[in-house]
Amino acid sequence: MDQVTSQDIDQFNEFLRGELAAVETYDQCIGAFEDNAGMRESLSLLRNSHAARVNKLTARIVAMGGEPDSSSGAWGTFAKMAEGGAKLFGKSAAISVLEEGEDHGKKLYKDSLEDLSLANRGFVRTQIIPEQQRSHNVLSRLQELV
């Protein structure tokens, strides 16, 4: 691995907090679709994709000699509040909150690339961004169904 900096570890922990928040938010949203097995399954697959990214990011942080964050932090608190409000306003609002989170994640990954070391930039480009883009695309299609 090329020169890993504390900035890389800090940035990966920011990514990790976002992925932890995504898992928490999907967990909450899935419950809103008790009457729609297909939607629950699709949302569960997206949740599991975020959980897999949590595992990848955690392993990468440890490999860099860092300490992975274990909570979603402020973003998780915001996501919980937004999702709680979305549940009150219905399924379409719940999906909109998830889609907003996917947009935020996609932008965060792309905007942070140039600040990472070369090896970590490659990791994010090949291991994280494609799955984030796929999640975003699937959720956009689900939004049309609600």
Features:
about 150 residues, mainly alpha, Ferritin, 5 helices, about 0% strand
Please report the distance between the alpha carbons of the first and last residues: 45 Å
Shape: elongated
Task: Tell me the total number of β-strands.
Answer: 0
What is the gyration radius calculated from CA atoms?
Answer: 15 Å
The helical percent reads over 70%
How does the helix and strand content classify structurally? mainly alpha
Q: Report the average pLDDT across residues.
A: 88
Please describe what this structure looks like.
The protein is mainly alpha-helical and 146 residues long. It has a single domain, classed as Up-down Bundle (Ferritin), CATH 1.20.1260.10. The protein is built from five helices and no strands. The chain has helices spanning 6-30, 37-63, 73-89, 91-112, 118-145. α1 runs antiparallel to α2, α1 (6-30) runs parallel beside α3 (73-89) and α4 runs antiparallel to α5. The chain is elongated.
